[in-house]
Design goal:
23% of the residues lie in helices and 28% in strands. The chain is an alpha+beta fold. Strands 1, 2, 3, 4, 5, 7, 10, 15 and 16 form a nine-stranded mixed beta sheet that branches.
Length: 451
Amino acid sequence: MANDTNNNIENKVERKVIKRRKISYQKVFSFISAGFIIGCCIFYGTRFLTLYLENKKEEIKLEDTLSQNIKETNNNLKKVNNDFYFQNNVDNNYIMYSNILWRIVKINSDNTIKLISDDVLTYLSYVKDDDNSINTWLNKNDNNNTGILETALNNPYNYLTNDGICKDSIDDTKHITCDDVDDTSLIGTLSMFDYVNAGGKDSYLNIDKYFYLSTFDNDNNIWYVDNDGKVENTDGDNIYGIRPTITLKSNSKSITGDGTKDNPYIIDENFLFGSYVKLGDDIWRVYNVTEDKIKLSLNDYLKDDSENVTYKYSSDGYYHNDTVKGSLAYYLNNTYLNSLSYKDSIISNKWTNGVYGSGNNFDYKDTLNSKVDTNISVLSVGDIILNGELSDYYLSTGISKTSSMVYTVKGNGTLYSRNSTSEAKIVPTISINKDILTKGNGTITSPYEME
C-alpha cells in the first residue's frame, strides 16, 4: 500500500516535471523567435542606416566644392605623392581671399587647397631667433606685434586649416624631398619641394622678385628665389620679399569666378581689410583695421598734375618730424594735406617710425614699437604692403638711429637704403574713422566712399 502511494506521488511529480518541461520549450521557442525577429530588424536596419549614411557621404563628396571643380576642369594637373599641382605658366589658378590675390599651388590629397600670395606682402630679413622670425610676422602668439598677417585675414579659422610645410633640409637642389612635414602653423611660406614641383623658374611662381622659401640647408642657411627665378641660399641677413602660403579647408566653395586674373575664384566678400576706398579723386587701400579706425595707403604714387612727386625724406635720418620745413613729413602734413578736398576727414594717428637693422637684430617687432603722432605718414617695415607694382618710394624706417640712410622699396622684391637727403617717390598713408564709409562694396570697380 505504501508502495502504491509512493508510486502515485512519483507519477504526479513526473507529470508535473513533464508539464513544466513542455512550458519551458514553448518559452524558449518564443524567445528564440522574438530574438530572431529583433536580430533581423537590427541587422537589416543597420544595413539600411549604413547604406543611407554612405549615400549621404557620397552626396557630400559630390557637392560643388572648389577642389572638385578644379580637378574636373584641369586635366593637366601634375600628380605628385597624391597631390595635384598647377604647373608652369598657367593662368587659371587665381583666387581672391581677404581682398588679397593668391595663386593656387596644389590640391592636397585630402582636398585642401594650398595657396601662395600672388605678390610679396612685406619685406623682412630672416632672423634665426624664433621670436623674431618670418613665422612670427605671419602667425600670432602671445607677444605684441605678432601675427600681422593672421590678424588681418578674414575669419581665418573658418576658411583655413594649418599649412603643411616641408621641413626637410636640402643641400643639393637635384635631390629635393618632403619627408618631414610641419603642420603646426596656420600660415607659412613656400617650400623648395613645392616650388620645384610647380615648375620653378619656368612657372607662375617666378614673379621676377626675390622672396624667401621655408627650406633650409644643413648649415641652417635659408633658401630663397631670386628675381630670375633661381634658388639660392643665404644666412638670412638680406631683406627679401615674403610671399605667405595658406591652406583652404576641403569644403571651401567659390562664390564666383573662373580662376583667371580678371575673374579670380572668390570665396568671401565685403571684408574691410584690403578693400579699396575712394576719397575725392584718389583711390586708397585699407592695410590696417582697428575697432573704430582704418589706415589707408594710396594705391598709386603721390602726383602733381599727373606727374609723380619726388621728395627728400629729411636733412638727416629717419625721424618723421612734421615741424621741420623741407622734410617729407612737413610736406605731407602741410602742403599735401591742405590740397585734399577731404582733409577734414583725416584724423591724427600713431604711425610707425623706427629702425630695422643689425642694431635691433632685424626685429620688426621693435621697429613697430616706435611711433609718432601725425596726420599723414608713409608705410613702414613690418606693415602689410598691398600694391606690389609700386617701387622706389620711401618707407618711414631707417637702418639705425645714428645713420642718415632710410629704406625704400625696390621693384625686384628687396629693400635698399638711400641717403635721406636724396629724392624718392611717395606713397602716403592716412587714417579715417571707418564708420564714415557708407557707399560701395570695397572693390576696385565699386570702392567704399563717403556720402
